[in-house]
Amino acid sequence: MPGQPVKIGPFVGGMNTYSGPTVIADNEAVLLQNLDVDLDGSLLARPGVVMSAAPATGAVSHVLGTFRAKTGEVYIITSWGVSVRAFNTATSAWSTISATGDYTACVQYADSLWLVRKPSGVTQGGGKWDPVAGYTAVANMPRGFSCCIYKERMFISASRNNDDTSINRVKFSNAADPNTWTVTDYFDVNAGDGDDITKIYSYDSSIVIFKSDSTYIFAYESSPTKGIVQKVSSTIGANNAFSVVEYENNLFVMHEANVYRISNWNWEQANLKLPFEYRNVFGSGEMEKSSLSLLGNRVLARYYDKYYVLGLKTGAWSQWDFSLKGYTPSEFVTNPNINALVGAPNYYAASYVATNQQFYFFIDGKFNTDEDFVIKLVTKSYDFGPSYSFKRLYWWGVDILGTAATTFKVIPNVYAVPVKWGQLIGVPIPSLGTWGRPLEPAIDVTDAASGGGGTAYRTFIKLLKGLRFRQLQFTLEATYKGLNSTAAYRIFSLTAHVDSKQTVSKKVS
Question: Which whole number is the average pLDDT over 299-311?
């Protein structure tokens, strides 16, 4: 058999777009779209997302959290315009908690859900709710954008929209009584620095106070008035109240276009090799520019309209895309009750586009939904030996499981390709290169096949396309039909049969 077999991957290093496609590691890829890097190194199609039942009217704002009743039912709490509603995950029925007021945060304590209202120029007024007693207003509850429970007290962060003199202020209730608040029970966090508090979070025997560009912790022994505020970062904060998640005693926070992992108050940038792309157009109907969600063993980072996924078991990044269905999920929250069908939790999300009356449902398991999405793998550019020699590709192949029709493409990276004058018509002068290489012509060899012969078997697809090259890049693309009857889609490995042919003869090749 001609050529020597060379294994390509596995891509346990995940995506790397920080470096060029010729210099990233052999176990990294330029693009892993709608793929998860599994523990065995194979690439598995992500589970699908489905539209869940949403209220008939009202513009969605955010999923605020969850509430577990004493009887075991779990409710997803959502803010819809100027109302707050509860979704019963067992019956898929909606109920209105309050039809007046824009709510920003909630927390469960003492078998009740405590709801914080948006300031909007008013300093007080919130409420509590449970499915039996209904909603009760708490007139003296401070308004704000974030809340938490710490040592049997409820804490609420104030906001610039509330009072310009208290954007650095955190207020707290009486012990074991979020019904009672006094105007003197508060503490300030580096007052006067102009840095708004975006999120407060009870973590590691303290309250973490994230500001726009800094982070502090607050703790006390017997009384909050004797507590100490300590700075842990003077440059990193949280973008908003939806940019912090916790996983196995680690915090993940999104600051500007970066995700940081916090462990023992050591900050590590998690997306160093995957700079998040900025969307130039951000419509007025869209909510916060970013959010973090925990989906099983993944962190889902949304940055404008882009979704990036960090596998917490593998440390590998990939990219998800919902554009085929036009989905726009924002932050997901977890239903703590396990789905009996797959033995995994369910997740729910609203839409980051305020005008979309959408409510999304996600199951992390082998049972997918009816969402169609495009799977795409783009590898690095491989030398397959010395960069100064030309090689011969005799054939290549893919070890794959899946029934979706897949397009396989191999792209030789060449330098000197003849360009005709007609090809330059209509090309702006700033877009042209040098006289020796005015254009970057696309040269590729494409083939298509379906694995398994229509059945869910692991197969090897042999692609008999020979060519001469110096560097070579491979892509796979398929549209996955996420039906319960559809087989999983998994890429195990790629193999190329190549041999060295000759040393380059030109001065520049």
Answer: 95
